[in-house]
Amino acid sequence: MAEARIFADLKQDHDRQRDLLGRIVETSGDSPERRELFEALRKELQAHAAAEEESLYATMLADPDLRDDARHSVSEHKEVDDLLGELVETDMSSSQWLQKFKELKHRYEHHIDEEEEEMFPAAAEELSDAQEARLAEVFETRKPKEYERAEHEQPGDARE
What we know:
By secondary structure, the chain is an all-alpha fold. Helix content is 81%, strand content 0%. Helix 1 runs antiparallel to helix 2 and helix 2 packs antiparallel against helix 5.
């Protein structure tokens, strides 16, 4: 069976995020390249997390067999958002910034690996094809709106 569109959409985002993480860790100091790449990553992670929570996670939370996985992932999103907020507040030229970024990279890569290897397959077993198609539509509609929102909101800002 072909991979459901919702999981393909999420995996495509994850691949883009892995690329940004890898490119940022290769930068140094408070350079224009680091600033540009980090800002792209920040908006991408904020938009992705919000759209994923509003689509896949919302549905998983309603399913007793998937609820624990969804709660775990929402918690990890909060940790990543907190780290992003700390990075925004830290001088990019400091060694603390790079150290904190590497912690974010490690935690986020662990999170998305866990999603792809464990959570997505478990959800695919429980969700119907119609549910998966609806979730893809919700995600694909929400992501651009959440990206626009991320343009104006820093990590950790109160969500409406």
